[in-house]
Amino acid sequence: MSWIDEIEVSDADGKLAAVYAELIKKRGKVSNILKVHSLNPDALEGHLDLYVTLMFGRSGLSRMEREAIAVVVSATNECAYCVSHHAESLRQYIHDEETLELLTSADGLETLEPRLSNIVRHAEKLTSAPAAMTHSDLGELRAVDLSDRDILDLTLIVSYFNFVNRIAVGLGVNFSADELSGYRDD
Fold it and tell me: How far is CA 39 from the centre of its chain?
């Protein structure tokens, strides 16, 4: 739930009911970050399209790298909702608790393996100090074999999670242990 009115799955009709049904079919449930959009189904649909494209679409960034970006951006923004959700997804790819702790705290990122380190440090800088970004920042990404398309995807994912973090934090979207588990990740 959040600080604003939301339409529950059982009360939805029309376009919202169709979007909810598709989410349940594909993901197994409707997350609170999506349910908070229920008063504006068109925005919910646009949000979903962008999310699926960035997190599951074709990219030179792996699913693990995309989830790591989500976690670091969300940790930098102190968005517990998104850190919790995406750390849960990240656990499918990273089984080392020390690495997970570095990512979920957005601290010590320079100690990670070079490619992941450069990616998440770039994400943290773009989140915390966007005006400090320079052309030379891209050199660190190219040094670990990111193409310009990969750099674009990285930038889009960072921007997306800054957007979502502000929705979650700004509207008081919260989660329960039940909400964090049981999603299908396809």
Answer: 22
Q: What is the 3-state secondary structure (H, E, C) of the chain?
A: CCCCCCCCHHHCCHHHHHHHHHHHHHHCCCCHHHHCCCCCHHHHHHHHHHHHHHHHCCCCCCHHHHHHHHHHHHHHCCCHHHHHHHHHHHCCCCCCHHHHHHHHHCCCHHHCCHHHHHHHHHHHHHHHCHHHCCCCHHHHHHCCCCCHHHHHHHHHHHHHHHHHHHHHHHCCCCCCHHHHCCCCCC
* Residue among 73, 68, 117, 119 at smallest CA distance from 92: 68
Q: What is the mean pLDDT of each run of 10 residues along the chain (186 residues)?
A: 95 96 90 96 96 97 98 98 94 96 97 98 98 97 98 98 98 83 53
Domains of the chain as residue ranges with CATH: 9-57 (no CATH), 63-170 (1.20.1290.10)
CA angle 52, 58, 63 (to 5 degrees): 70
Q: Which two tokens stand for residue 89?
A: 């997804």
> Rounded to whole angstroms, how far apart are CA atoms 25 and 37?
19
| CA angle at 116 for the pair 114 and 122, rounded to the nearest 5° | 100
